[in-house]
Structures are given as structure tokens and as C-alpha cells.
Amino acid sequence: MKSNGFFAEFKKFISRGNVLDMAVGVVIGGAFTAIVNTLVKDIINPIIGLITGGTDFADLKIILKPAVGETPELAIRYGLFINAVINFLLVALVLFIIIRNFNKMKELAQAKKKAEEDAEKAQQAAKPVEKPADIVLLEEIRDLLKK
Fold first, then answer.
1. What share of residues in the chain are helix, strand, coil (percent, to 5)?
2. 98: closest CA among 23, 25, 10?
3. CA 23, CA 36: separation in Å to the nearest integer?
């Protein structure tokens, strides 16, 4: 019967909205990664190559063992690593900017809500407190009895 508990818990997990949000984030992240990859490969690397005298980062490598016949060369392709680092930094920068702006907007919304609540409290405090009708009637009766 533990499997029923497991599947019930899994069904509860899947039916949360967070899972759908996460799936959308993964799909958008994949598309964004493709954009960043082409930005680095087709725009940034040629500019860097122009600055460094025509060197393409993807071609940078240290050959450990040259190719012999059908055996391919054995090389450390550090240029590809540099491309991956540039990709990572660009993705991290964009995510930082998005999250930073989201947090600022959230703070502004909270500050606006608090200001509205404070204004409402101040407005309520400025209003004279009206006494209920039964209290007013009892006070009138008291005043008449005093006379």
C-alpha cells in the first residue's frame, strides 16, 4: 500500500501550479540558451577574433596527441570552454537583470499597497467616531433624567 501513498503524493506534486511554471521556465530557458549560443558564436567570437588577429575561440586547443591515420587527434579544446564561460556569464547577467527588476517591481507594489493602507488608516482616524444609535438614545435618556 506504500505505492498508493507514493503515487498520491506524486499526483499532488504534479498537480501543483509550480510544476507547470517550472516546465514553462525550462522550455523558455532552452530557447534562451539557443539565442545566447548563437550570440556568442556568431557575434561575440568574430569580434574577439578580429581583435586577437583572426583567432576563433572554438579553434583554440592544446594538441596532446596528433591524428594518426584513422585515429583522431587528442586535444584539450580550451576555446570551447571559453565559449561556454561566455555563454554562462551572459545567461547569468540576463537572469540577474530580470530578477533584479522583478524584485524592484515587487518592492514598489508593496510600498504602494502599504501607503494606501496607511492613508486609509489615517483617513479613518480623522473621521469622528459615530456613536451607535442605542448609545445616543441612552445618553439622551440619562440627560433627561438628570434634569
1. 80, 5, 15
2. 25
3. 20
Residue 118's CATH number: 1.10.1200.120
Residue of 3, 7, 28 lying closest to 94 (CA atoms)? 28
CA dist 91 to 31, 51, 122, Å? 12, 23, 46
Q: Report pTM.
A: 0.57
Q: How far apart are CA 40 and CA 49, in angstroms?
A: 12
Chain segment 44-103, per-residue pLDDT in tens: 878 877 887 777 777 889 999 999 989 999 999 998 888 888 888 888 888 888 889 989
Instruction: Look at the chain and report how many structural domains it folds into.
Output: 1
Q: What is the pLDDT of residues 1-27, one digit of tens each?
A: 455 788 888 777 777 767 777 888 888
* Closest to 109 (Cα-Cα) out of 117, 17, 122, 125: 117
**Structural domain boundaries enclosing 96:** 2-146
